[in-house]
Design brief:
- The chain is mainly α and 320 residues long.
- The chain has four domains: 5-68, Arc Repressor Mutant, subunit A; 89-143, no CATH class; 159-216; 222-319, no CATH class.
- Helices cover 54% and strands 4% of the residues.
- The protein has 14 helices and five strands.
- The protein has helices at residues 5-20, 27-33, 39-51, 89-99, 103-108, 122-138, 159-166, 172-187, 196-216, 232-240, 245-250, 252-262, 269-293, 309-314; strands at residues 24-26, 57-59, 65-68, 222-223, 265-266.
- The strands form two sheets. Strands 1-3-2 form a three-stranded antiparallel β-sheet.
- Strand 2 and strand 3 (65-68) form a beta hairpin.
- Helix 1 (5-20) crosses helix 3, helix 7 (159-166) runs parallel beside helix 9 and helix 10 packs parallel to helix 13.
- The longest helix has 25 residues, at 269-293.
- The N and C termini lie far apart (81 Å).
């Protein structure tokens, strides 16, 4: 075992007190010198110093007075700690994202943590132990934690935050592209929130979902490309209406040629094609019905020779 930060600070106070009286330690006097500790905590730290063999002392009948002895005090029996226990990566990520605690700081608290008892509760107990120690340090300048990085246009999310986003297969270029918007949003609200990295992860996931959806469902009108094909959902919808994919593919080419030549823009070519196929399917069914009624011949309305050139050129209803 090694001397921790708190023990070192208490030893400094003890050195001044023992100059005046080498045989007596006053917990009350130590509490005045170190107001950020209560009597119970000072007693715990004194016992740790004794257990480390640095000082031979034990409490008297008055718990606020300790007597320095020549014989080392017998250490109180302790529960056997679990071997080589370390907090989970999930807990370290949470403490880092929510409170800005570094991995080194978190693991340093293992020195003062008793890793005994039910292993299932160790993560929760260790989290409470770390936060208790961290909040105690925050209250006093002597234990001030390093100030967080400035939140300006050069701000970057932490490495842990980037790793979490990378696990969702989010492109690093996309993360960088939304960073200025995130910075501007919080600067206009007075500065970064306490849990800035958690907020950035949430913000990035929302933007990424919106980005992914926009690729599938664009709201911007666009021209039809010569190599355009409908997505699978179109064929599934047609099958529900009893129209096969083979039939839809037979009218795909004329649909593409017509709309590419028209140079028009639409927000959903899939919906346009769906409408076109259903129209052509209806005409196809009517032709079949007409042939069956006339013994297999074409009805006059369906014969090219019975329609004028003007009718053929002006009929664009088939395009949907």
């Amino acid at each position: 075992a090694t001397v921790g930060l708190e023990e070192a600070v208490l030893l400094q106070g003890l050195s001044h007190q023992l100059v005046a009286d080498a045989n007596t330690i006053s917990v009350e006097a130590l509490a005045k010198d170190f107001p950020f500790w209560d009597h119970v905590r000072i007693g715990q730290l004194l016992q740790r110093i004794v257990d480390l063999g640095i000082l031979n002392a034990r409490p008297s009948h008055d718990p606020l007075i300790w007597r320095v002895t020549d014989k080392p005090a017998e250490a109180a029996p302790k529960a056997k700690p679990l071997r080589a226990w370390t907090p989970s990566e999930h807990l370290i990520d949470l403490l880092n994202l929510n409170h800005g605690l570094t991995r080194d700081y978190i693991l340093q608290q293992l020195k003062t943590f008793e890793a005994s008892g039910d292993r299932k509760t160790l993560d929760t107990r260790f989290r409470n132990h770390v936060l208790s120690h961290w909040r105690q340090q925050q209250k006093h300048p002597a234990f001030a934690i390093k100030e967080p990085a400035r939140f300006d246009n050069a701000w970057q999310p932490s490495l842990d935050a980037k790793e979490i986003l990378a696990r969702t297969e989010m492109a690093s270029e996309f993360i960088e592209s939304i960073r200025p918007e995130f910075i501007l949003y919080w600067k206009e609200r007075g500065g970064a929130p306490k849990d800035v990295n958690s907020k950035f992860i949430q913000f990035a996931r929302q933007r990424w979902t919106r980005h992914e959806n926009s690729l599938q469902h664009s709201t911007l009108p666009e021209r039809l490309q010569p190599n355009w094909t409908p997505n699978a959902a179109v064929y599934e919808t047609l099958q529900l209406s009893g129209i096969s994919q083979d039939f839809a593919d037979t009218v795909l080419r004329e649909f593409v040629v017509y709309w590419v030549d028209s140079n028009e823009v639409h927000t959903s070519w899939n919906a346009k094609f769906l409408q076109h196929v259903k129209y052509q399917w209806q005409r196809h069914q009517e032709q079949i019905s007409g042939r069956s009624q006339t013994g297999g011949g074409n009805s006059p309305a369906d014969r090219t020779k019975d329609r004028s050139i003007s009718d053929d050129l002006s009929d664009t209803s088939w395009a949907g």
